[in-house]
Specification:
Length: 282
Amino acid sequence: MPAWAAFLGLTVLTLGVVLAFARRSADSIDQFAPTDAPTTESTAIPPDDSSALFPRNATTNRPESPEPVLRNPDATTDSESKREPDIVLTPVAMMANVAFTQGVILFGLVLSAWYFDIPADAFGSGIGTGGGAAVVVGVGFGIVLWGANELSTTVADAVGAAYDERVRELLAPESIGGWIALFGVVLPIIAVSEELLFRGALIGVPEMGFGLNVWVLAFLSSLAFALGHGAQGRVGVVVTGALGLVLAGGYVVTGSLLIVIVAHYVINALEFAVHELPAISI
């Protein structure tokens, strides 16, 4: 007999950990990959001597320069010795981190579903379009959503609400092997893990187990989906939330988890292929 309450409780706990980790990741990106900001000089050089406090030709009332302090060039100050080494977020490290964390979430969901005897149908498996037809529908759905996503970010840029693209740029590989790993391993893991959590576990399971309103569940899961992408900035949260709501709607209407998994993968893959792949010298 399925232990619906136990599985849902563990899923909500997992969601809390995911959101906390997403917040921590956003802070790390702000710290180690800050946005470009214009810098200003703290002092200005007067245009001529007449406005200077000590004109260049003045010889009276000039304060004496202090004697230079000599120190061993090999010596380091306490502040220098205590300073933490610079941390560089490389694409390999970013991909490994994402693949590992998303893989752990995926493994945990599958294991808990098996342990609590949750039927596969509750996640959207075996309902609606399946097999090859689901893949075709998912690809088409993903292309349409990617186009809408591009349009929304273009509009946001036009009105001065820039979309934070640092996460995508940090994940962009620098080699052929890296791109193969991204398209063949990392992005599939992301699509399966996030759709299983935000659509299957947070919409399908509560609806089947407790008879909750599926559209309310779709809205709440999409809100959580948006908050989980806080590293993309405020505009990114809004766009991702809207995208998640449409994916949730597609999941509810078709009853197929596979369709939204494929669509999710297509959206992410096109994002990298269009915006990052042309800039890489292969």
